[in-house]
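Annotated sample (chain length 279).
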Amino acid sequence: MKLFIHIGLHKTGTTYLQRQVFPHWPGITYLGKPYVPYFLEKLIFNRPKVALISNEQFSSAYVGQILSSLNTIRWWKHRANCINALQETFPQANIIVALREPSEYVRSLYSQYIVAGGDGDLQNFWGTEDSNARLRGKDLEFLPLLQDLGRRFNVFPYTYEEFAQDKMSVFKGMQRFFEVNTLPEIKDHNKINYSLSDLGCMKLREYTRQCHADGKPIKEILIGLKKLKAKLENGDNPAMKGGLQMPYELKSKIKDYYRDDWSETCKFIKMIRSGVERA
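Output written by the structure step:
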């Protein structure tokens, strides 16, 4: 049996793949997000030739909770711990991983941070390595992560930007990686998750701040945030349209900070993918 594990990262189209692509790929036994008893039962009784599981928490815990925690471990360190555990548990696994251009990733992660109960401003969310920001420096340096995965596993990497522009190209690369004869039978191409706009983030952030001022416990805050987000998502609400807008100065600063790392990461992805295509 060949085991393939899709590990995210978070906010790179994982939900779309898990719901609309992987379950509809002929020749692959998709085991979903592994609930252990179900996972083992599938392996024992079905004996699949090609098995696939997908869970972004193999690369790190729920990122919104990590970034909104007051006692957070640095995200890059948490990712490294998860990769160590992944190798110990599935040493022969084949890994699929998606990475995202850092400035766009900061924008998306900030929305997730707000949904998870964070109440800080976007301008203070990201910073350089020597700052006190929630997300900083090494957290979005992806070349060391990809090199580490490449040393430990057989890897199929791609970028979220490539996926958003040409999904079929990524699927064809995955097909070669899986060594199956067919592509997925996708019936619904609609996006599943939508990012909050500036207005949506402001409404959730203000709600969280008021809850903190009122002394409400975090569990109650999260329940309220979930209800408020659902309300904002209903109908033609401008709070959910267009996504969060990144200030030009901040976006440029992030792009400049990670320019070399992201450029080398993309080159490394091409190098790995060329090997997959030749195999």
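Annotation: The longest helix spans residues 248-278.
Annotation: Residues 7 and 58 are 5 Å apart (CA to CA).
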